[in-house]
Inverse folding.
């Protein structure tokens, strides 16, 4: 079946799935969106609610469907899974969500879709690796939202600190989307100007840069915990991140985004998926971008990979249909 480049499917209509669907609808990227959920009525209700705004935004057919409806989708967004609760880490969700993904991947294997799968459910790196190994879609067409949101949080906080447009900040968070993530401070810059020089430009040359960086790193890393403690879930930021990644795919932008993808020796890492900058377009992950890192950052990235591999050591990646 050929790919309909104007069609998107969202699997999972919890708050993250529904918010992602809403952000996608507002973007005007697609003309058709199918929602799937184990609770069919929930999917139907979300489809109805979101579709009622299309007269105010963009023409779009939005409906609740089945796995058969996603076979020709350009992008399949998978948000289904147990949500992170207050006090839980993303890694605490592993076995619950791998079990859920097992059933989803079986359905996807049977349909043999030719589009792109974007994994959003947590722990996103482990579930991305699981989906890449069991969906039958091929690793380049299966990747996760990774640290796109974390990187947006980083740029937002830096922009606020420096009183500059966050879109002019070039900085990445790599590794696990979780507690072992790494800020690549060594190559962070504002429109090509290294951070120390830009701090000086903004009249903050005497600031303790290391202390400021550590504070921002911790604020980014703890953002989800703080939001969950205050309102029990995060969904707007990730919804906008999903829309941004979909835009890179559908418009074949070749955008460099820190998505979670399976590594085969890049940065000296094998046997897991984690986030590094990658060129994303219509065919998925085209190439990984080998950004420079300090020795300390490379050691931290290797540690992040070790954390992920340890936490998925007892997961069965065999396909048993």
């Amino acid at each position: 079946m050929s790919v309909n480049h104007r069609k998107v499917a969202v699997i999972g209509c919890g708050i993250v799935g529904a918010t992602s669907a809403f952000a996608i609808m507002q973007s005007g990227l697609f003309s058709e969106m199918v929602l799937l959920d184990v609770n069919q009525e929930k999917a139907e209700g979300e489809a109805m609610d979101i579709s009622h705004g299309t007269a105010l935004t963009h023409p779009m057919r939005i409906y609740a469907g089945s796995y058969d409806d996603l076979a020709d989708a350009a992008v399949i967004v998978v948000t289904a899974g147990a949500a992170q609760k207050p006090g839980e880490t993303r890694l605490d969700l592993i076995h619950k969500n791998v079990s859920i993904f097992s059933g989803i991947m079986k359905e996807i294997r049977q349909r043999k879709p030719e589009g792109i799968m974007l994994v959003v459910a947590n722990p996103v790196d482990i579930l991305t690796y699981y989906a890449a190994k069991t969906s039958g879609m091929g690793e380049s067409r299966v990747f996760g939202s990774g640290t796109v949101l974390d990187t947006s949080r980083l740029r937002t906080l830096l922009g606020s600190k420096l009183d500059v447009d966050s879109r002019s900040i070039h900085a990445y968070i790599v590794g696990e989307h979780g507690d072992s993530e790494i800020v690549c401070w060594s190559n962070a810059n504002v429109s090509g100007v290294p951070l120390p020089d830009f701090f000086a430009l903004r009249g903050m040359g005497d600031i303790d840069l290391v202390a400021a960086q550590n504070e921002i790193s911790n604020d980014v890393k703890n953002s989800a915990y703080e939001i969950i403690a205050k309102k029990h879930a995060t969904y707007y930021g990730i919804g906008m991140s999903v829309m941004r990644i979909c835009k890179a795919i559908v418009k074949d932008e070749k955008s460099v985004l820190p998505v979670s993808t399976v590594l085969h020796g890049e940065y000296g890492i094998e046997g897991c998926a984690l986030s590094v900058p990658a060129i994303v377009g219509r065919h998925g992950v085209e190439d990984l971008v080998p950004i420079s890192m300090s020795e300390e950052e490379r050691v931290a990235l290797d540690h992040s990979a070790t954390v992920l591999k340890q936490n998925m050591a007892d997961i069965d990646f065999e396909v048993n249909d």
